[in-house]
Amino acid sequence: MAMETLPKAAGAEHLSGALRRSGELGDGRVRDVVVDSSRRTLLSHILRLRLTYEGASVNAPTKRHFEDRPSRAG
Q1: What SS3 state is found at 45?
Q2: Fewest Cβ atoms nearer than 10 Å: which of 12, 19, 38, 64?
Q3: Which of 21, 24, 17 has its CA nearest to residue 63?
Q4: What are residue 17's phi and psi, to 5 degrees?
Q5: How far apart are CA 4 and CA 37, in angstroms?
Q6: How many angstroms separate the CA atoms of 37 and 20, rounded?
Q7: pLDDT tens-digit readout, 20-69
Q8: Measured between alpha carbons, how far is 43 from 29 in angstroms, rounded to an integer?
């Protein structure tokens, strides 16, 4: 499988901030994000991500579902 380029919102830094704000991460951080699977649909790109952490991350999820949809022009 070819290396998948992650959207900025699925990057380690962005996910660390989002998980910390939601109370799921604590003082840890997302160290690495790997694409487990990728599927394109007519309107979106669905990625299943595997996350690894550094530091305190007891309650943090190890897998996340990320869907990148084009924004609607309005």
Answers
A1: strand
A2: 38
A3: 24
A4: -65, -45
A5: 9
A6: 25
A7: 888 888 888 999 998 888 888 898 888 888 888 888 666 677 655 556 66
A8: 31
Quickly tell me which residue has 């959207």 as its tokens: 7
Q: Give the three-state DSSP class for 63.
A: strand
Backbone conformation region of residue 23, classed left if phi is above 0, alpha if psi is from -120 to 50, else beta: left
Strand order in the sheet with 45-54: 29-40, 45-54, 63-68
Tokens 């309107």 correspond to 43
Q: How many residues does the chain have?
A: 74
Question: What is the Cα–Cα distance from 53 to 16, expressed in whole angstroms?
Answer: 9
pTM: 0.68
Tell me whether residue 43 is exposed, middle or buried, using C-beta atoms within 10 angstroms of its C-beta: 0 to 12, 13 to 18, 19 or more. Answer: exposed
Kindly give the residue spans of alpha helices, DSSP state H, lying in 1-74.
12-21
